Amino acid sequence: MSYGSSSLCSGGRSNRRAFEFGRTYVVKPKGRHQATVVWLHGLGDNGSSWSHLLEALPLHNIKWICPTAPTRSVAAFGGFPCTAWFDVGEFSEDGPDDIDGVDASAAHIANLISAEPAGIQLGIGGFSMGASTALYSAVCCAHGRLANGNLYPVNISAVVGLSGWLPCSRSLKNKVESSQDSARKAASLPILLCHGKDDDVVLYKHGEKSVEALRASGFRNVSFKTYTGLGHHSVPEEMNDVCKWLTARLGLDGSR
To answer: What domains are defined for the chain?
Structure first.
């Protein structure tokens, strides 16, 4: 199932850039609907490719929403246009932050799950740049606001990031420490990060640094799984770990 119409998101201020998001693919749960997870693709990909993989996972109580990022020029590719959740010059937490871009993506993602039924657990996950956008969404959820000042409209129960990095890390601690409520949300939000030790695109050290930055800023419920010999892709062992973790964190019972 897919939604063919594109959507526009400006990030909440008239002077911010407007982004046109692509097609959204939805995988309906095969069993009783207990959770909805938005899954975000990597740079240059689209929602369709991950929707097929997710549909095959033994997670029958999850509804998967797989959006497609806007097509934009990407500095890391010399300005060549491709699908990207935000502009990026280097795949690490040390590069310049495209706050407008990642903020607009976080707002779009939150809007996709804002109308889910009461009692449904909500999650966000992704691969590579999608993982980075999921982590940025986790920070917005804890802070309660997007960078543009708008309220973050949903409560996330689980965040998964595969082969990614933490964007906007320099402002992370200030956001978490902005209020007792933000600190409490950060401390309790379950996050699973997975990274291959042989990743030659988003280097393993950047995965490590992301975990360290999250924990140092008050995200206490961060799990980090590593895989020897794994490059910048996923393998069944990693996806099995994701399935087990989501089942436990979202309280899935496997019922049909």
So the answer is: 2-249 (3.40.50.1820)
